[in-house]
């Protein structure tokens, strides 16, 4: 009698029970999926904020570097250029190792420069090399920009 009673109840209510289980399972899966999506959106928003901050910082930064331009008969020009997005102010040049000046005659005043404009602004200086000169010249370039004061780069130039 209990088997037939159970079968009767299952026939009458089984469809409803399965429907309710399906609805509850669907609601559970919806909230679980929604939680994952919100977590991903939060991570994407953080990445976008970091990228925006990085872009804003780059807009404030100058990037001063130098390279050697070879000319004839041991003559060289050194070009100090700014490839950054901000102007470089109060640009100073320091020779890191005085022993690297052996056989090199620096012509003119190597800075300080009041300003090197952004986006490939430059200043040039000359030098003359004698027989037996050193192979490299080590320089530290120091500048101020909107990002900070006394920013610097160390370069070792092949002569």
Q: How does the helix and strand content classify structurally? A: alpha+beta
Strand order of the largest sheet: 1-2-6-4
Number of helices: 1
Strand content: 35-45%
Mean pLDDT: 86
Rounded Rg? 35 Å
Largest sheet: 4 strands, antiparallel
Question: Quaternary arrangement of the chains shown?
Answer: single chain
List the helices and strands and how they pair.
Layout: H1 2-60, E1 64-70, E2 75-82, E3 88-95, E4 104-107, E5 113-116, E6 121-129, E7 136-144, E8 151-158
Antiparallel strand pairs: 1-2, 2-6, 3-5, 3-7, 4-6, 7-8
Question: What can you tell me about this protein's structure?
Answer:
- The protein has 159 residues and is an alpha+beta fold.
- The chain has one helix and eight strands, in the order αββββββββ.
- The protein has a four-stranded antiparallel beta sheet, with no helix packed on it. Strands 5-3-7-8 form a four-stranded antiparallel beta sheet, with no helix packed on it.
- Strand 7 and strand 8 form a beta hairpin.
- The radius of gyration is 35 Å and the shape is rod-shaped.
- The N and C termini lie far apart (105 Å).
- The model has no long low-confidence stretch (mean pLDDT 86).
